[in-house]
Design brief:
single chain; 191 residues; two-stranded antiparallel ribbon; 7 helices; 39% helix; globular
Amino acid sequence: VDIGGRSAMSDYSVISVLDRGGAIPEVVAQWRGHVDHDILTWKSAQIARWYSNALLVIESNTLETGGAGECSLYTLSSLNGVYHNLYRRPKLAQFTDAPESRIGFHTNRATKSLIITNLVAMVRDGAYIERCNEACNELATYEQLPNGSYAAKAGCHDDILMTRAIALYVASTTRVAPPQDFTAMLARPRW
């Protein structure tokens, strides 16, 4: 999930579903639009639940920095209480050096370089299936800037691209959970 803005002039929010159960990963569904961040969070959980309780990977930058409003961390905490297959990144505790984890994928200079390098390799090698024309347009207008950072060309978007980059990186660095019993899934309530 890439969290964008709420107004029509803002970046889009995008939810992408990546199926990594076949020979190569495949994008099988996508939602893109402008919506309040709390609604986006619940919508992403509903979609993840629909897709066999998929691993839900939320880019957490906006939610952690307060850019989404004061209720952002509360929203993640609430989501954690009802949807347990959330991506968690490792982090050392500040005072104890004990390992802990945080919900969400945090994009920063280091992680962005990792996910974009992986995305470039995946596109170059035809190592995933992409069917969205807009995603291909974003790939064609994304560039490395002279200072080494990455961004979409002026007037272009990178919201779909970022969901692909994060999903493909996480898919390549985490193991696939075993398939769930279909009859048990049917017995669970849907949201």
